[in-house]
Amino acid sequence: AAAKVLAGMKFASATAINGTLKPIDDSEGIAPAIFQGTIDSWGDIARMKFNRRMCGIEHRKQFQTNRSIKSQKSELIALREQITNSLVPANIFQQAIISLNDKIFIRRNQETHWKNARIPLTIIDEPHYFFPELKSWKEMLK
């Protein structure tokens, strides 16, 4: 999403974190069948499991939202449509960070994507969403 939203902007540095430029893709993103299965099963139980997978058990409460299931499902459908009906965005990133415990984007798929793009990788021991734990950006690379 960042590569699409920030397209054409100039940065001294840009780091991709736990994702790829092909977010729905069998070998470089989330498998289309998995993404569709998430949409098809979206409900209270699926959201609870997703939050646990996104943040790990200890941090999932920090990611909870008051949004309705219907609103979130609509967002997932809109994301799928936007991603599958658009070209892969131009790469704006000079480096990528992959979380060792990412249960949203498969580590192997991220590694494949960024190696194919010739982007240096850093692997950290965190879940997919770990930002509440950070006090500064430099902590991410320790």
Structure characterization notes:
By secondary structure, the chain is α/β, with parallel strands linked by helices. Helices cover 37% and strands 12% of the residues. The protein contains five helices and three strands. The protein has helices at 2-5, 32-41, 44-55, 69-84, 107-116; strands at 15-17, 95-101, 121-127. The protein has a three-stranded parallel β-sheet. Helix 2 packs antiparallel against helix 4. The two termini are 26 Å apart.
Keywords:
single chain, 142 residues, alpha/beta, 5 helices, 37% helix
Summarize the SSE layout with pairings:
Blueprint: H1 2-5, E1 15-17, H2 32-41, H3 44-55, H4 69-84, E2 95-101, H5 107-116, E3 121-127
Parallel strand pairs: 1-2, 2-3
Helix pairs in contact: 2-4
In brief, what are we looking at here?
With 142 residues, the chain is of the alpha/beta class. The chain contains 5 helices and 3 strands, in the order αβαααβαβ. A 3-stranded parallel sheet has the order 1-2-3.
Query: What's the end-to-end separation, in Å?
Result: 26 Å
Largest sheet: 3 strands, parallel
Low-pLDDT sequence parts: none
Q: Strands across the major sheet, in which order?
A: 1-2-3
Strand content: 5-15%
Q: What general form does the structure show?
A: globular
Structural class: alpha/beta
The helix content, as a percent range, equals 25-40%
The number of distinct β-strands equals 3
Radius of gyration based on Cα positions: 15 Å
**Secondary-structure element order, N to C:** HEHHHEHE
Overall mean pLDDT stands at: 90
Number of helices: 5
